[in-house]
Design goal:
Number of strands: 9
Strand content: 35-45%
Order of helices and strands: HHEEHEEEEEHEE
Number of helices: 4
Largest sheet: 7 strands, mixed
């Protein structure tokens, strides 16, 4: 997987989140999906119902804060083998023509299956994960 291929998969993820398209979201996520907030408690989404609930929380916060795009700048690609890739990126949550919050780093693990690449593990800032769960807000360019 090249950086370009990651960006294509990440764009599908962004489209799913911004447009509220769960079917598309489910196509890019593999269950179980492990979420790891840095400096927080990781959790695993085991079922489609849990994935949908997590998706709905994220979409609600995107709408609430007017997020209309998510840009991920690839900073590193690791390839442990042909079926797994690890991409580190700088994430920008955008609204209108500017950033909603300061950029933050995320690490996304992908696995190649019969139907293509899917995310199966995501590590991000504690503020970002709490925000996606509706447990934090955005104020003056920072997660609260």
């Amino acid at each position: 997987m090249s950086a370009r291929e990651f960006r294509e998969l990440a764009e599908r993820l962004t489209k799913a989140l911004v447009e509220g398209d769960f079917a598309l979201y489910a196509q890019v996520m593999e269950l179980p999906l492990r979420i790891e907030p840095r400096d927080g408690n990781p959790y695993t989404l085991e079922t489609e119902a849990a994935l949908r609930e997590d998706f709905e929380l994220y979409c609600n916060n995107i709408r609430l804060h007017g997020i209309n795009d998510i840009y991920r700048e690839v900073t590193e690609v690791e390839e442990p083998d042909e079926t797994q890739k690890i991409v580190t990126c700088l994430v920008n949550l955008l609204r209108r023509s500017g950033r909603a919050v300061d950029p933050f780093h995320s690490v996304m693990w992908m696995r190649l299956g019969a139907d293509g690449w899917r995310f199966h593990r995501i590590q991000s800032s504690l503020g970002h994960i709490n925000w996606t769960l509706g447990q934090a807000g955005i104020d003056d360019g920072s997660f609260t």
